[in-house]
Amino acid sequence: MKPYELSAENLLRQFRTCEGGLDYGEAIKRQEEFGSNVIEQKKKKNYVKEYFKQYVEFFPILLEIAGILAFIAQSYQPGQGNDVLGYAIFGAVVINASFTFWQNFKADKAMEALLKLMPTIVKVRRENKTLEVDASELVPGDLIILEEGDKIAADAVLLESNELYINASSLNGESKPSKRSLNSGGAKRSMDATNMVYAGTAVVNGSAKAVVVAIGMATEFGKIATLTSNIEKGLSPLEKEIISMTKILTILALLAGVVFFLLGYFSGKGALIAAIFALSLIVANVPEGLLPTITLSLSLASQRMAKRNALIKNLASVQTLGSVTTICTDKTGTLTKNEMSLKEIYLSSGERVSVSGGGYDLSGEFSLVSENERSKNHLENLLKAGAFNCRATIEDGKTLGDPTELALVAAAKKYAIDVKFEKIKENPFSSERKMMSTFAKLGDKEILYVKGAPEVVFLKSKYYQDTDGVKEFDEDAKAKTQAELESFQNRAFRVLAIATHDKDEEENLTLLGLVAIMDVPREEVKEALAKCYTAGIRTIMITGDNEKTAAAIGRSVGLKFDGVLTGADVAKLSEEELQETLKEKTYIFARMASGQKLKIADALQSNGEVIAMTGDGVNDAPSLKKADIGISMGSGTDVAKEASDMILLDDNFNSIVSAIEEGRTVYFNIKKFVTYILSSNVPEIAPYILSFFLKIPNPLSVIQILSIDLGSDMLPGLALGSEAPEKNVMKRAPVGKDEKILDFEVFKRGYFLIGVIEASAAMFAFITFLLSHGWQYGQVDLHDPVFQAQAMTMTLLGAITSQLANAWTMRSWDFNVWTLRWNSNKTLLFSMATVFAWMWTLLNVESVQKVFNTAHVPLGDLWILIPFPIIILVFHETYKYFRLQKMA
Amino acid sequence: MRVVSLINGSLSSESSSIYALRYAKKLDCKFSLLYIREKIHSKELDKSFENIKRSADYLEVEIELLILEDLKELKSWVKSKDVDMMFCSSRRNHSIFDRSFAQSIVKMDMKVDLAVVKVVKLFRANSVDSVILPIRGSKLSIKKFTLFYAFAFAYESKAEIYSIDKISKRELAKVDALQIKERLKEVIFNLRHYFRIATLMGFKFNLKHDYTLAEGEKIKTHIAQNGYDLMIVGAHYDGSFFGSHPIDAFFENPIMNTIYFIAYEEEL
Description:
The complex is a heterodimer. Chain A starts with 7 loop residues before the first helix and ends with a helix. Chain A has four domains: 3-41 and 112-230, Calcium-transporting ATPase, cytoplasmic transduction domain A (Distorted Sandwich); 310-334 and 522-651, HAD superfamily/HAD-like (Rossmann fold); 340-521, Calcium-transporting ATPase, cytoplasmic domain N; 671-724 and 739-888, Calcium-transporting ATPase, transmembrane domain (Up-down Bundle). Chain A is built from 32 helices and 27 strands. By secondary structure, chain A is of the alpha+beta class. In chain B, strands 3-2-1-4-5-10-9-6-7-8 form a ten-stranded mixed sheet, with helices on both faces. Chain B is α/β, with parallel strands linked by helices. In chain B, helix 5 links the parallel strand 6 and strand 7. Helices cover 41% and strands 25% of the residues of chain B. Chain B is globular and about 60 Å long. Classes of the chains: A alpha+beta, B alpha/beta. The interface between A and B is large, with 46 and 43 residues.
């Protein structure tokens, strides 16, 4: 027998305790035997260690070697600016490491929030005395004393109970207080035993005495803690992308470095020169600014999302949103307003009344078929009976009380009923009675108003109000009313029966009718769902409500589903069967028990889906952590918020869809600026290669390359990251797992199309400048440092101006850039202005010229820079046009 | 063949003895309760013995209560009494300087299979609905399987072998559904003999496989998610106190009753 199945006497005997509690010696012995009553926390990460780990990854090591080589080169060839290069590379390493650390290693505070639910001090019986002890000292067999407001520290079986109600929402998500009794209610699991109280829950009413049967991690709360702290989350799509991108680009850079080192060495240039050259190529190829640009771009996106009520906690989640294939959403508050609204009324005389308007909005109309005075009076009496028999209030738009009662008050106010009356007595609602009544004085009359579950009120009704007076509630009348009740229930309404009496007695009532109440769907959900379907995202509703209500709400908001599965159905399915079930078809999940969300998340992820999962309760924390994107509600618990990646400030489904749109936009924006960043590699590499094989002076220095990578490319790159969504972003399928940012298209556009034009632009500027100032082919040493610096400046400006045109045309990946408003991306305009200012500085400020080997170039020579940006614009726009045609 | 359960009057040793009793009943072995006088908590011992006796009577198993004066006598006693399996519970709080009784037993290197039982949920030994046996990849000895099988069979409970492979975060990121299926197939193939034995004996068990970053945490998560009643973990005599011993890793904060099985390795 399990502890909750034992009688009080047996329980005490088995746990070797008594009414007076354990003695001190036994308590200490049991502490040694069973340990302390504490929830295990994972060892905190050593953040210093984690930070320094960032320096020993593949990419940083490569840069560090490059930096060291630069300093070695400086000692052999001083005055070439290699020291500046070394510092710049190490600067990039520090920036990259810091950004990666910032992104990856945020403190996980979900456990801290969870632990706040546990008490620190508990009242316990030991050696016939009631003591207050540290909660960690509780042992199995201890007798705990529970009173209203107490947090419970361990799982315990009740010995005595006085109207005990506990709030077990942390374990089962049920916000209504749960009544405890002295029998287990035939439970098969300890979680279902009504004679048990649990660690992490709280007493909301009454008092009790209980025997501790499980402590610490062995409690039900310990299970939630285990799931919350141990859920393994794989790398986000962006993290995978960054690893993949870094690997590809690093291999390319290394390959280029090795090839050109060997070429240089065997062509007799000497090992040192060949090594410096190879190093320059590696530096030119490695996109030092990529990671900071991605991180900043994600930060900007998260700021935009915050304005749309989606607060991002984990930056990488922004891009993950773009890959979401399935949204698993709650019903109440997310798809619906969590505002109950009275939609239909059945008057016991046989008339049906529809009520327009929704929620607690006081505007709306009553469509009464027969407009006679008797029917109007009947309706008024029913609405009065509903509104007077309530504790809820609506004053100046402010609501207070139970949502169902608020619906009754709102309906009465809609009908302009003055709700002033004198309350004489109230018989409160209880789950046993399933009804509530209020005895009131209205004018000089005393009336009892009753509302409750129809089956209970029917039993207590002897009469019913008909059009022409009060009649006996006989079998015929009952059958008719029952049929109406079933019709409402089939349409997922919550139905209450309303009755009256002229005495304070809950018997022989006069039935006035039935009211049908529903949680109103949010108006914007229909559109948001339609957007999801166009975007290839399926939506699964997971709710604790019954099947009928779930299906009715699903249909009313336009949810596409193949059927409804209940928690019991899910429990019967193995993991593999659930995976198979969810492969092709979409279901609504109703009457779901705590923990089943995690099973669904597991099944969907095993099917290769990227899932966004909503939740607000403590028990939702594991599934929020497990999901690719855990979404908590602004109105939810702290534990859920800490466990999630995104918080919905307005609890609204529409905000999830907006966030997904933003996520997809970020994905394509990253693609745009990666292409943009890669493009500039070609004009950085080409001059080197050409100077190696042709008899021309050196067109570009390493420090100038760095000035592009970490300087002039950065702001426009960032600005591309904040480009508005493209018009087709929610008309395509989610970004697939196999869809890479760094795909062939990116390489093609970046390296082979725009990159080649940019390289031509840089070399055209360099050679044309040299030729126009009397240089002849074969003259490798210019002998004039200023002339050399001017020529190099032209190469640099050739690359920078081409990149400006590239940034402009890259604003749209698929569509003509001129279809966008010219000033829609103000960050880009600002960044372009900054780059122009930078170019002016390179040309005119001596201190800057010294660092970057540049010199003033007469205005008359700058015309050379004009043609190629135009060529890039025309070429890329034409390319996009034909690509779009081909795709269409 | 004899199954012996060490008792000291504690609630844990009482639960541990019930497991031992079930095991002995299933394998039709003699069953003895043994207490070492130096460790005795006499007041509680009688209550404990009474409770175990009640269970033994219910299961129709004869029990005998044996007494040893000193722990040092245990090794020779085990040798002389043809002991097949010894059960012993372990307390939670122990350290290098305060070795638990179970740790002392493990260190004695006796010619007997040892089942060290860690009890965190009391009075669950009489009804076990599901047993889980976590293994690394497809590493499973016939001895461990036999113990697992005996318990699953004794309680007529659901049984699952949970195979896990530890991999890095990057490797985990690359794992796809196909790879998981292929690995599961591979593990099934490697364990095919156990499936055959099970089929021959009319016994069914599930096999589940997962990749993980941290074995202990993954097992705990799996258990918390699926709610097993008993876990059987394999280990060796040569474990140390400094972290490499699975008993320490799993017993630090268990969430369910666990039997830590140390099979005696005969020198062939």
